[in-house]
Amino acid sequence: MSDVSTNPRADLFRYVSLELDESSLRATYELDGRAFVETVVFEGAGTLDRPVVRAVAELWFLVAGLSYYKAGAARRVDVGATPLGAAGERLLAAALREGLGEFAYRNDLPLDDVIISGGTDVVATPVSLDPERVLVPFGGGIDSVVTTATLADHLDQTLFIVSPSSGPFAPLEETAAVTGLEIVRATRHLDAQLLNDDDSFFHGHVPVTAMVTLLAAVAAVASGRGGVVMSNEHSASAANLLWNDLEVNHQWSKSLAAEILIADALSERLGDQLTVASFLRDRSEVWVAKTFSELPQYHHVFRSCNRAFAQARERRLDTWCGECDKCLFINLMLAPFLSRATLVDIFHHEPLSDERRSDQLRVLVGVGVGVGVGVAYKPFECVGDPEESAAALRRVTELDQWRDEGQLAALAAEANVAVTFESLLEQEGPSRVPAHWLR
């Protein structure tokens, strides 16, 4: 728990107002009287200033507030006159506790004592949407690429891209261009106070994917589309560790539990017209990697390294760093399917054989010790569970081109490979994907 802060907690976080005009949302919050304002500007989504769009935007308003709530980790949350509803309240409560689970763990700051008050009843707003037209939130990595490519002949897809106020991310834009699909955009203008590294604030992870999902829902409803197609795999539901009886999951907002909460809250407001589900929910990271390996047109433009997606332009890398857990994990997932030469050509590094990454690799496959705790757990990153990683490593060490890397074979023998590599290429677990997405 290296991020523990000695700052005192705030007393009250308030949801002040949500304003919509034709192309933007403006959310205002207060933390012990200190105001924060976030604006999101849409392009290509149609007119936002309508009651049915507002009904969806109110859910985004509730979840997006956690970016500012975390600055003080207030003991009381007052949503004021915001329509909440039973399903909306369940979503907000879970987003605060589970969605901020990593934040709470890193700051040693249990949030079980937070009291949520206020809110008004929700009245469902009639809407008619086209189920064959969907938005696909697109991040430029292998997951959303595989979703768009696999559904190419099934649905009328449009990409949904969220950018920071500092400007679009080049690798994301380059990868999106390869799809040839139209794009609906949203640009988030976070309150500058959050970006100034204020020492009086608590800092940490927030459920960003849930916020993006709800922004996509806003754009979908505004443009008459009946679906938001996410790209979250089966392992996104797996927790990193157990702390204070809380399953801490870095990917909580990509989990099946979060998907259901979001869908229920949207249904409470819209009925059954909008489908929000992950196309990859019953798929493993290994299956995604195999499918991506068969899409060579994307191999030299995609990027999953987080250092390419820094908020500040001057901090963004223009290639894979070769050092972070994401670089190592994606390299591991693709290694069973692409040659070493191809991987080096893509990554400009070979993190899998880099002995400086050995401790990170041990953690990925479930035999290492994570920083800050005395037990093994997967990194606080968007990576697969240790079983997937261990099975992939075992398969890599069986390939002739990797037999010279004895340390990998030794690690594969040490790891507990509880599933077969072949089983990871089959469907696993439940999925909420509707039949008409696959026709």
Q: What does this 3D model show about the protein?
A:
The chain folds into 2 domains: about 10-120 and about 130-280, Rossmann fold (3-Layer(aba) Sandwich), CATH 3.40.50; about 305-425, no CATH class. The protein has helices spanning about 50-65, 65-70, 85-95, 100-105, 140-150, 170-180, 210-220, 255-270, 285-295, 325-335, 340-345, 360-365, 385-395, 405-415, and strands at about 10-20, 25-30, 35-45, 75-80, 115, 130-135, 155-165, 185-190, 225-230, 240-245, 245-250, 275-280. The termini are far apart. The longest helix is centred in the middle third of the chain and has 15 residues, at about 210-220. The strands form 2 sheets. It has a 10-stranded mixed β-sheet, sandwiched between helices. Strands 10-11 form a two-stranded antiparallel sheet. Residues about 370-375 have low confidence and may be disordered. Helix 6 (about 170-180) links the parallel strand 7 and strand 8 (about 185-190). The chain is an alpha/beta fold and about 450 residues long.
How do the strands and helices of this protein lay out in sequence?
Elements lengths: L11 E9 L3 E8 L2 E10 L7 H14 L1 H4 L6 E3 L6 H13 L3 H6 L8 E3 L12 E8 L4 H9 L5 E9 L5 H10 L3 E7 L18 H15 L2 E6 L10 E3 L2 E3 L7 H15 L4 E4 L6 H9 L31 H10 L5 H8 L10 H7 L21 H12 L8 H9 L25
Parallel strand pairs: 1-4, 4-5, 6-7, 6-9, 7-8, 9-12
Antiparallel strand pairs: 1-2, 2-3, 3-8, 10-11
Share in β-strands: 15-25%
Poorly predicted runs are 371-375
What's the arrangement of strands in the largest beta sheet? 5-4-1-2-3-8-7-6-9-12
Order of helices and strands: EEEHHEHHEEHEHEHEEEHEHHHHHH
